[in-house]
Specification:
15% strand; globular; alpha/beta; Rossmann fold; binds adenosine-5'-triphosphate; binds magnesium ion; 7-stranded mixed sheet
Length: 265
């Protein structure tokens, strides 16, 4: 059964989509079956793999508004072992169209339910807000990964995000688990990010992954050609960081399922 991971942060441009693309690629490289879900009307995840959405493409929007659609029909295989459900600007309408629908927070959970057996990981790329789409992601997810740019204001914004996650845990999804905060776009040349990283580790302890993704122009270059950095610059430290993250995710998973077995035996 797939582990569903929402990659979220209400701040824009903090590496959410980049994390979904490259963690997805790294998990697939390690033999895992991965489904990437574009839950952002900007459609950046779809473009990151060069998936063009036109009138005939079944997208996340269609799945949200038509429960009769089979979600399998919306999956595009962008790489071996990597499926993607695309999105485009129409998805923005969901925020309003679902507003009076009972169970509106659980629509994504129901869409993904029949796909869980076919994948090992389902990664959801959230948009930069805390609206209904993001609430759907948090209600469907087992775990959350929060990319964090090591700057003072970004660290302050984490408080709001964690309150929101705690609220979802209380009201919609008791299993929701913060898997970790991932420091990204880390600039090794200046002291401010280092101070912020230390402060983040003091505040959040083990919740901060023992991995740092450095700032590098290679990420933007990879995005231009529509490929993960793991393919564009496979030996770059940025690619290695996402492989290390995949390793932590897979090993943590094994540890948790072992603990579950031991607890239930
Ligand atoms: N480690 C990095 N170093 C340098 N640039 C990066 C890094 N990670 C991502 N970027 C670049 O930063 C920009 C924003 O990244 P990304 O699109 O992943 O953020 P996002 O949080 O998904 O944004 P949005 O909130 O708009 O969805 C992109 O141009 C991306 O290529
Ligand atoms: Mg994005």
């Amino acid at each position: 059964m797939a582990t569903i991971i929402a990659v979220t942060n209400q701040k824009g441009g903090v590496g959410k989509t980049t994390t979904v693309v490259n963690l997805g690629a790294a998990l697939a490289e390690k033999g895992q079956r991965v489904l990437l879900v574009d839950l952002d009307p900007q459609g950046s995840l779809s473009s990151a793999f060069g998936v063009d959405v036109d009138e005939t493409t079944p997208t996340m929007y269609a799945l949200f508004v038509d429960p009769a659609l089979d979600p399998h029909d919306a999956i595009v295989f962008v790489r071996e072992r990597v499926g993607l459900i695309p999105a485009d600007i129409h998805l923005a309408a969901v925020e309003l169209e679902l507003v009076n629908k009972p169970g509106r927070e659980y629509v994504l959970k129901e869409i993904l339910a029949p796909l869980k057996r076919e994948f090992d990981y389902i990664l959801i790329d959230c948009g930069p807000n805390l609206g209904l789409l993001t609430v759907n992601a948090l209600s469907a997810a087992d775990e959350v990964i929060v990319p964090l740019v090591c700057e003072y204001l970004a660290l302050r914004g984490l408080g709001t995000l964690f309150e929101n996650i705690a609220h979802v845990r209380r009201t919609l999804n008791r299993r929701l688990y913060v898997r970790g905060i991932l420091p990204v776009m880390y600039d090794v040349r200046s002291s401010h990010p280092r101070q912020i990283l230390e402060e983040t580790r003091t505040l959040f302890g083990d919740f901060v992954f023992p991995i740092v993704v450095r700032r590098s122009i290679r990420f933007a270059e990879a995005a231009v050609i529509g490929a993960p950095i793991l393919e564009y610059a496979p030996h770059h430290p940025g690619a290695q960081a996402y492989r290390d993250l995949a390793e932590v995710i897979i090993n943590g998973q094994q540890r948790r399922s072992k603990e579950n077995k031991e607890n239930s035996s």
